[in-house]
Each structure stands twice: as C-alpha cells, then as structure tokens.
Design a protein that fits this description.
alpha+beta; hypothetical protein yedk fold; five-stranded antiparallel beta sheet; 6 helices; 29% strand
Length: 220
C-alpha cells in the first residue's frame, strides 16, 4: 500500500487501529494447520476498507443445517461491515465489536460459522497525546511468544463479505501508553482456537477477556 493511500485511510478512521501480517500465506498455513492453496499474500499492513486474510470453519454461503465439522479455510474478507439500518451514514463501515451482546452482532457471534481467526504479527493502537504537539501517538504491539497470533473476528454475509475485530478494555501493558481499547488476542493453544471457531458461546465468550500483560510487548 502506498503511503498516500495509507494516510487517507488513517484520516478517515482516526480511532480505528491498524495491524500487520508480516508473513506469507504458506507461513500462515503452517501456523494454523491448513493448506493455503495459491493465495498470493506476501505480508504487509492491513488497514480498514482493505481486504485481509481470515481463517474460518464456516461455509461460503450459510444455508441449511451445518455439517458436523468443516475444515479450516483461509479466505479474503473486507475489513469493515455495513452498519445497522438505523445509522444515518450508511457509507460508514463498522470495523470493531465493542459490545458482543449488541443485537447487531449477537446472531453472528452465536453462530460458529461466522466466527473467524484474523492472523496478525503486530497491531497499532492510539495512545495519549504527545505534549509537544497535542497529537495522539501511535503505538505498535506484538506477542513475543507468538510470531503469528490470532485476533478474534466475526464476519457478516453481505454483497461483499466483511469482517470486524472483537475488542476489549486495554490491559495494563497498553494502558501504560494511554491506550483505552485493544483487539481480542486469542491464546495460542489449539484448544482455544477450536473453541472460538467451533465452540458454544459459553466457551467462546470467555476468550474475550484482555490478553495477559506479560504476553504483549510494545514494538519499536
């Protein structure tokens, strides 16, 4: 992505975080135990209103009874979903989920086919303003024990299928820099990833707590 386009996207979404996926499709496939096929992803920034890789155990079209267990698939999805009909500006997409009990999200989150893993290697959040110029600072964070980690995501079936990232209150490691929210980082073990993709909401919902402080580090 060229710098000018990146800055335009950032200016449209001043409070929306960004993330990076500095790994190619083959490495992502190895990390999550799936076949990447001929996906051309080579790594880089992911910004709102752009396509990104997500990992889903759902069907491409949701209709009829779900098979017992579907294999994982790595597919492109647009970051951002159309807003609820009640929103005045229908062109303003929704990028994150702050309230998983909202009627707008509850049906998709309770249906395991709409939950997805969003691979990442780092994410950005806005911190407290710089005292010199009053502008909020950007801070990048990563997980030292997981070179490629999974963010909790949910997608909606629309004309262009899109996804949003689940968020939670920032943990102490991020609050140190003045960050208020953070994406939900899923534990790296296979059982937790299975719970997010296949488990009932009683198991998946508990994964929305903030990630342990010591497992997130600021990346310079």
């Amino acid at each position: 992505m060229d710098g000018r386009r990146f800055r335009r996207i950032l200016s449209r979404c001043p409070m929306t975080m960004l993330y990076r996926l500095d790994a190619d499709a083959a490495a992502i496939g190895r990390r999550f135990g799936l076949e990447p096929g001929d996906d051309p992803w080579a790594g880089g920034h992911i910004a709102p209103d752009t396509f990104a890789l997500v990992i889903t155990a759902g069907r491409e079209e949701i209709a009829g009874p779900r098979p017992e267990k579907l294999p994982l698939r790595m597919v492109p999805r647009l970051w951002g979903v159309p807003p609820p009909p009640s929103v005045t500006d229908a062109s303003r997409a929704v990028y994150t989920v702050r309230n998983p009990d909202s009627p707008f999200w509850i049906g998709n989150l309770r249906n395991t086919e709409f939950r997805c893993l969003v691979p990442a290697t780092a994410f950005m959040e806005w911190g407290r303003p710089d005292p010199a110029n009053g502008k909020r600072r950007k801070h990048w964070f990563a997980c030292p024990d997981q070179p490629i980690f999974a963010l909790a995501g949910v997608w909606k079936d629309s004309e262009i299928p899109g996804f949003a990232l689940l968020t939670c209150r920032a943990n102490a490691a991020l609050r140190e820099y003045g960050c208020e929210r953070m994406p939900v980082i899923l534990p790296g073990d296979a059982a937790a990833l299975r719970d997010w993709l296949y488990g009932g909401w009683d198991r998946a919902g508990v994964l929305l707590a903030g990630f342990a402080d010591e497992l997130v580090a600021r990346r310079v």
